[in-house]
Amino acid sequence: MKVLIIGGTGNISASVVPLLLDAGHEVVCLTRGNSGKPAEGALHMRGDRNDADWFVPTVRAAAFDAVIDFFAFTPEQGVVNLEAYRGIRRVIHVSTVTTLGEVFDWLPVTEDHPARPTTPYGEKKNELDQLYLRAHYNDGFPVTIIKPSTTYGRQRVIRQIGIDTRWITRIETRRPILVLGDGNAIHHLLHVDDAALAFGGVLRHENTIGQIYHLVNPSSTRWTEVHDTAMRILGQQVPKVGVPVETLFALDPDRFQMARRIFAHNLLFTAEKIRRDIPEFAPRITLENGLADAFDHLHRHGLVEEVPEGDWEDNIINAQRSAFIAAGRANHEPRIHH
């Protein structure tokens, strides 16, 4: 197949490109050219997909067999895409499980669960999903919607309070790390190389057209296991200091928005449907191996952030510890009765 990838250098797409090339596909990556080059062997098309006057005729003229779109976020983009992708036999739209919200009617969450997004990002993605599904049912638009949960790899590692590399430095320098509450919320972490298997496989199965799939690790984990695994890899054990997520959000809404909306909750999705319809999706990378490879890559490329003493995380942890000490003293003070 001649496959257009909108993206090709991002967290998941960088792993998809070499997989498709190895399978014999001709791969063209469309990017703005601001984040490096795609894998060797892929053709690189530079341009702005938001420039409809350029995007639509360029894509139509190239006569692609399939498109995998990692960067469609709004229904406005979707309207343009319906025109640009006309005549393409397979359209793989990358959505997100955040379209479903964080409060669920049943667990594990299946693909037919009502969508109740609570963030502007999730709301726009859901509107786009619905636009595509209407186009499929009304006009035969050959879309498959894939909704990843949290993915990680060499480009990014994730802890419970968010996406950064600071926690690597904190663990290595024996400094405590923040967690949300008791740190035991359930989550799915999927390595990007395993996520790529679904995109490689979906093009082989036409029965996936018109379907929605959760792209999640079939095995869930708890955030405390993620943090403990990282400590084991890095060879240091440090305290995990729990702070209520609402307290953190009140201190810094921008920094802790993702933690409050996503990582503080028990998120349990089923991978049964995607494993049934796309048998190539068979995750094999353990959390320990995936994090170890990511940490090594980040270190070798100088991508691990330095963390000065007395930074914002130190300040929050010290304040939390002081509050516990003060509360303990108060509990032991004699009560005065009037």
TrEMBL record:
Domain NAD-dependent epimerase/dehydratase per the UniProt entry, residue ranges: 3-213
Pfam family, one: Epimerase
Annotated signal sequence range: none
SUPFAM superfamilies in the record: NAD(P)-binding Rossmann-fold domains
InterPro entries: Epimerase_deHydtase, NAD(P)-bd_dom_sf
Family per record: Belongs to the NAD(P)-dependent epimerase/dehydratase family.
Protein known as: NAD-dependent epimerase/dehydratase domain-containing protein
Organism: Subtercola lobariae
